Amino acid sequence: MSKESKGSKSGLSFVWGLATGALIGSISALLFAPKKGSELRGDIKEGAVKAVEVSGQALQTVKEKAVEVGKIVEAKTVELVSEAKHGLQKITKQETKAQAEQSIQLAETVEEVDVQEEAIGA
């Protein structure tokens, strides 16, 4: 796993931990505070709204990180494909050159055989 991937994962874990801790802390504080029922319900509603806001912010962060990672993956993929094409072209050129050299050697051998046959037959 890459450093970027680990960093994104730990950052996401931190955000979710922060949101969960804030929610649990808010609920605990509300339930143990001596208040009337109507005040308590209002405080719970307010805490829920804050939790939704924090979750929305966390979701936005996750979306931004996903887009960022997607761009990194795309760039790396393009780079790797380019390197692979270059390597394949290099191998193809080397094989073509080797085949040409073999063809030349074969033609020279055939010429030598022809010359020897002419010498024997003449």
What is the structure about, briefly put?
The chain has 122 residues and is mainly α. 94% of the residues lie in helices and 0% in strands.
Write the layout of secondary structure elements.
Blueprint: H1 3-32, H2 37-121
Helix pairs in contact: 1-2
Describe this structure in words.
- The protein is an all-alpha fold and 122 residues long.
- It has one domain (3-121).
- It contains 2 helices and no strands.
- The protein has helices at residues 3-32, 37-121.
- The longest helix is centred in the middle third of the chain and has 85 residues, at 37-121.
DSSP strand tally:
0
Q: What portion of the residues fall into strands of 2 or more residues?
A: under 5%
Query: What string gives the helices and strands in order?
Result: HH
Rounded to the nearest angstrom, the radius of gyration is 36 Å
Structural shape? rod-shaped
pLDDT averaged residue by residue: 81
Uncertain parts: none
- How many structural domains in the coordinates? 1
Structural class: mainly alpha
Which range best describes the helical content: under 10%, 10-25%, 25-40%, 40-55%, 55-70% or over 70%? over 70%
